[in-house]
Specification:
alpha/beta; about 25% helix; about 25% strand; globular
Length: about 220
């Protein structure tokens, strides 16, 4: 939060967030935001979480995340496939998970969204694994940009998923010299075989897509 999210938000003058979406409860997907929620300069109206069954022992992390939000006094709600968030011309359609789905781990719970803004579209699917990516293909694909699932791991971003999404650009969130070897060479080859351009946060810092709904500008940003 202090090292990454705060500098980005402060640089771009973001002090109000209508809704912050947490795909799942792995620490690299929620701790940055949680560390900022009690700071006076940032106002977050609500947090959106995946609508999975949280009753089993392996859902302890989700219950702890909800409890942390309650302690911070930040409203939250869950979202499931078929529901949408609409802000004027900007539509966020949830395409995974099904409400009260029973999943085995946090990655398989990843809240997945298809963003549409006029002619621009994008898929966000958290750390969803290859076995679950097929559930997304029940919905329209053919988008402008995807955020690589699970940081560009070997077994996510399957050929079926990439052929369905058919993006022009894949944005890969990964740390420089990370111990997991993300993004994996096999995944990068799948992108190259399909002539899909890629950008990595390891190389460019934060990746920003700006669009008027037709033309798109994509660039990286690193703190000065």
């Amino acid at each position: 939060g202090a090292d990454v999210m705060r500098p980005v938000l402060r640089t771009f003058g973001v002090s109000h967030i209508s809704c912050a979406i947490i795909s799942h409860w792995d620490t690299d997907h929620c701790n940055g935001l949680l560390s900022l929620l009690d700071e006076d300069w940032l106002d977050v109206e609500e947090v959106i979480l995946p609508a999975v069954d949280d009753s089993s022992q392996n859902m302890k992390g989700l219950r702890e995340l909800k409890a942390a939000l309650e302690t911070l006094g930040v409203p939250f709600r869950v979202m499931s496939a078929g529901e949408s968030l609409i802000f004027g011309d900007l539509h966020l359609h949830c395409i995974y998970p099904q409400r009260e789905a029973i999943v085995e781990n946090a990655n398989d719970a990843s809240l997945s969204l298809r963003l549409i803004y006029r002619d621009f579209s994008m898929i966000f699917a958290g750390d969803l694994g290859g076995a679950k990516e097929g559930e997304l293909t029940k919905y329209p694909g053919d988008v402008t940009v995807i955020k690589a699932t699970h940081h560009g791991s070997e077994y996510s971003n399957t050929p079926v998923f990439l052929d369905w999404a058919a993006p022009k650009l894949c944005v890969i969130s990964c740390g420089r010299d990370n111990p997991y070897g993300h993004p994996h060479e096999a995944f990068l080859k799948r992108l190259n075989d399909r002539h899909i351009l890629q950008m990595q946060t390891a190389n460019t810092g934060a990746i920003i897509c700006k669009t008027d709904g037709s033309e798109v500008t994509v660039y990286g940003w690193l703190p000065g």
